[in-house]
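Q: Hi! First time asking for a complex rather than a single chain. Here are the components, and I think there are two in total. Is that enough to go on?
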Amino acid sequence: MLLAVLASPGTGQDSDRRDIESKLVALEKVGKLQAIQLKDLKMLSEVLDENFILVDQDGLLLNKAQILAYVQRATSMKYLTGEMTVHLHAGTAIVTGEYRLNGILAGRRIEQRCRFIDTWIEKEGKWLAIASVSIPLT
Amino acid sequence: MVGHRQCIDTADMRNKGSINGRNMMRVICSIILLGCSPILLLHAQQTDAAASGTIRSLEREWVDAQSRNNNLALNLILDNSVVYVEYGHLVSKADYLLRIKHQDPFTDEIVMEPITVRVFGSTAIVTGSYRETQRKAGAYIVTRWRFVDTWAYKKYGWVLIAAGSTPH
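A: Yes, that's all I need. Here is the structure of the assembled complex.
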């Protein structure tokens, strides 16, 4: 009985942690990647903080408005992702993983294989992406 | 200081309890609220500015510690669960410290360029670029990198929780 009582807060915390991790992976897959593929700028805008910044695989620094414009310009963008890992630090989370991108932008084919590191923060009960870096896989 | 003085005056008014006193208290409360908002905003800005300054120093210390094989300092700068991508590979803190421990400090030179720090409460994002000169087999290879570093404020101060850079 005592063991069960002592164990319960930990189990609860583990469960909360798993819930947050699942939520963040879903936000990565649906809120970001699927939104980009479907050109759902509204959804993409909702998961990106106003001060969001991205360093892309070519080392270019882009802000939120530039990313939304880039997605709008693209003819097609298809992402394939592998397993993602979430590291939680209170109200901050780091999500890392790999992706393969096949797309067409301004008539030019894009093929990339990258590792990414995304930073999310919890703001008023909502998780928002504040930074992302893509690193080409060699 | 002025805000503090006004707060004390408000407390005195409340004790008097008269109608005039209440009206006067409302006026004073409004003045305090109006006066305090910029003060609170200024305080938040100063806190962010202080955090930004600390993080800039830590970024410099990181480069310095790496160039001097100072693993003791690096151990304090990097969080134990740091996500670090170095030359395209995900490396653990232990692997990184091991590499630095055995690195010849004369084969690698890093020159930092201006950086930008964005503070989001207890999280901060640093973006910037640096030039790395590596000596390999008598030749110098220069690479310019753009990076994103993530810092989190924990129990004992700011620690690096993620870092990744891309050549550009």
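A: The radius of gyration of chain B is 25 Å. Let me know if you'd like any chain examined more closely.
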